[in-house]
């Protein structure tokens, strides 16, 4: 902790041209979090940190009884109409293609088009109590996240 505190001091942090820090405090926090995670977790738990899990959740009939298969990240998978659920061992994230079906945008973000998606919307807002239970799709997505990705 002492070393981390020293690294956060301005005079010890690397500084680039114009006094702009080369390593931000947020980056140091993320690196420290990942190092602690690697030291305290089993190999099975650290695998998502090195190779994030991806699931294609672009399915109107999404079900937690038959969750989507894990996908390998490649360029062909990241299509403009895709909707992918990802997990990197610490954070659950969604990849939403620009031409994704508006039905998914309405279900997840409660908007009608991609331009109005709040990119900073968190899990708490998407799965707000009293709202997500009304959607079979969101209930299935919630259960997949909590049963498959974070057992």
Written overview of the protein:
There is one protein chain. Helices cover 37% and strands 11% of the residues. The protein has a four-stranded antiparallel β-sheet with strand order 2-1-3-4, with no helix packed on it. The protein has helices spanning 2-7, 25-40, 43-50, 102-109, 123-126, 136-149, and strands at 53-56, 70-71, 83-87, 92-96. The chain has two domains: 2-40, no CATH class; 48-149, Severin (3-Layer(aba) Sandwich), CATH 3.40.20. The radius of gyration is 19 Å and the shape is globular. The protein has 151 residues and is of the alpha+beta class. It starts with a helix and ends with a helix. The longest helix has 16 residues, at 25-40.
Give the topology.
Layout: H1 2-7, H2 25-40, H3 43-50, E1 53-56, E2 70-71, E3 83-87, E4 92-96, H4 102-109, H5 123-126, H6 136-149
Antiparallel strand pairs: 1-2, 1-3, 3-4
Features:
single chain; 151 residues; alpha+beta; Severin; 4-stranded antiparallel β-sheet
Largest sheet: 4 strands, antiparallel
CATH homology group of the largest domain: Severin
CATH class of the largest domain: Alpha Beta
Strand order of the largest sheet: 2-1-3-4
* CATH fold node name of the largest domain: Severin
Residues in β-strands, percent: 5-15%
Helices, by number, come to 6
Q: How many domains make up the 3D coordinates?
A: 2
Task: Give the N-terminus to C-terminus distance in angstroms.
Answer: 30 Å
**Shape estimate:** globular
Let me know the number of strands: 4
The CATH architecture of the largest domain can be given as 3-Layer(aba) Sandwich
Would you list the SSEs in sequence order as H and E?
HHHEEEEHHH
Given helix and strand content, the structural type is alpha+beta
Radius of gyration: 19 Å
Low-confidence stretches: none
What portion of residues is helical? 25-40%
The whole-number mean of residue pLDDT values reads 80
């Amino acid at each position: 902790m002492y070393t981390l505190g020293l690294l956060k001091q301005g005079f010890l942090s690397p500084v680039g041209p114009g006094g702009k820090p080369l390593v931000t405090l947020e980056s140091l926090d993320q690196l420290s979090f990942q190092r602690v995670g690697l030291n305290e977790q089993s190999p099975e738990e650290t695998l998502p940190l090195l190779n994030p899990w991806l699931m294609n959740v672009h399915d109107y009939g999404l079900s937690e009884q038959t969750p989507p298969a894990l996908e390998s990240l490649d360029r062909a998978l990241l299509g403009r109409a895709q909707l992918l659920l990802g997990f990197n061992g610490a954070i659950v994230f969604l990849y939403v293609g620009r031409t994704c079906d508006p039905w998914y945008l309405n279900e997840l973000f409660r908007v009608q088009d991609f331009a109005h998606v709040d990119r900073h919307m968190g899990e708490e807002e998407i799965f707000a109590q009293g709202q997500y239970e009304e959607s079979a799709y969101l209930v299935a997505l919630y259960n997949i996240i909590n049963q498959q990705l974070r057992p």
